[in-house]
Amino acid sequence: GCRVTDGTVERGAHVRLIRDNVVVHEGKLSTLKRFKDEVKEVLAGQECGMAFENYQDMRAGDVIECYRVEEVKRTL
C-alpha cells in the first residue's frame, strides 16, 4: 500500500518509480484502489493501493511520483 504525501493521485496518471534516487520505471497508473474499492482519485494524507501498466516490482521504500501531461497549443 501507499500513502499520498502531497497533491492528489488520479487513475491513468503518468508515474515515475524511484528507488535509491534512481528512476527504475516510467509508465501509467492502471489501477487505483482505496480499501477494496476502485476509485478515480486519492487525496493527500490518504492511503491507497496502486498498480502500474506492465510493471509489478514495487518494494518498500520506493518513491512514486504521479504527474499529468498537459498539451498547450501555441499562440502567436
Outline the structure in words.
Strands 1, 3, 4, 5, 7 and 8 form a 6-stranded antiparallel sheet that branches. The protein has a two-stranded antiparallel ribbon with strand order 2-6. It has 76 residues and is mostly beta strands. The chain is built from no helices and 8 strands. The protein has one domain (2-67): Elongation Factor Tu (Ef-tu), domain 3, CATH 2.40.30. The relative contact order is 0.34.
Number of strands: 8
H and E order: EEEEEEEE
CATH-defined fold name? Elongation Factor Tu (Ef-tu), domain 3
Query: Per DSSP, what share of the residues sits in E-state strands of 2 or more residues?
Result: over 45%
Specify the structural class.
Answer: mainly beta
Annotation field: number of helices: 0
Shape: globular
Q: Keyphrases for this structure?
A:
Elongation Factor Tu (Ef-tu), domain 3; two-stranded antiparallel sheet; 76 residues; globular; six-stranded antiparallel β-sheet
Question: Secondary-structure map with pairings?
Answer:
Layout: E1 2-3, E2 8-10, E3 14-19, E4 22-34, E5 37-38, E6 41-43, E7 47-52, E8 63-67
Antiparallel strand pairs: 1-7, 2-6, 3-4, 3-8, 4-5, 4-7
Short description:
The chain has 76 residues and is mainly beta. It has no helices and 8 strands.
